[in-house]
Amino acid sequence: MSLDRIINEAISPWMREDGPDSDIVLSTRIRLARNLKSYTFPTLISNEVALQIIHMFESTFSGQMLNHFGNLEMLKMEDMQPIERRVLIEKHLISPDLAENSQIGACLLSENEQISIMINEEDHVRIQCLFPGFQLSEALDVANHVDDYLEQHVEYAFDEKRGYLTSCPTNVGTGLRASVMMHLPALVLTQQMNRIVPAINQLGLVVRGIYGEGSEALGNIFQVSNQITLGKSEQDIVEDLKSVVQQLVQQERSAREYLVKTWGIQLEDKVYRSYGILSHSRLIESGEAANCLSYVRLGIDLGYIENLSRNILTELMVLMQPGILQQYTGGPLHPEERDFRRAALIRERLLLEQNKDK
Questions:
Q1: Does residue 262 have a known ligand-binding role?
Q2: Coiled coil where (predicted)?
Q3: pLDDT of residue 132
Q4: String of b and e for 305-329 (b: at least 16 CB within 10 Å)?
Q5: 181 annotated as a binding-site residue
Q6: Please, are residues 281 and 237 in contact by the beta-carbon 8 Å criterion?
């Protein structure tokens, strides 16, 4: 299989777009948790009832057009191989919890993969909208539009005092989780993240790794999201997060200016060493690859490297994941085989990028 085909099938169309502040904010996500009024919540639901819910959503929404996002397609976890489910996780289209619910989980996915409606995860419905760059208000508007569209056909579990009722008490109220994915290498290199993270936590927000709760901050990529859903409006939650993200963007830019002035040739050397490792390695683990990609992306943003697109980080962070590597090589791979395939894919992708204008 050619690399062009791998990229075209593995990278969601929205990932190729730039958004506001996309030198630092890679993506924005809005997620709304909802439950159906007349059904037992998923934590206690029987398989029979869960399948009834999937059938209802499939018959009502599958194939329906959602504006410019394209048609909705029903993906049932039970019809997918474990590697295929892992690919969806690595593309941030479904959660690990949904993938584990292989007998009763499903997802309505828009054609451009920007909208994902997870069914029978922790809640009956999880509406997710993904946008490139820093677009919290825009993503919220779309999520609310999808929410209103669903509510024309289903009745949600809602309480006048408590708001939307969810399986986990931390989601009760708006049911809203707003998050941004940020690339913060300069704040890491200047060791400022150690004091920034606790300060953010005190504001009712949380900083996690690339795949959310319990994951590592691979490649200096952090996910910043709200913790509080009850007692605040959706707009207040988004505005609070927006304010913190704007400060982080400014701090990261200031830290980058500081590094350029004080590190000088050492910073440039770090960037080009990382570029050299990615361009020539024959074996590379995911952690080392992520760190090298981070510094190459920093070099692109600072103007050290001019023949690569900054979207290379987003693409390769997806393409190098174990599930996608195994999906496109046709079967399971041992760790060393994955490291070999990962190194080869990265080398070929960089070469393809370098030669695209020739």
A1: no
A2: none
A3: 94
A4: beebebbbbbbbbbbbbbbbbbbbe
A5: yes
A6: no
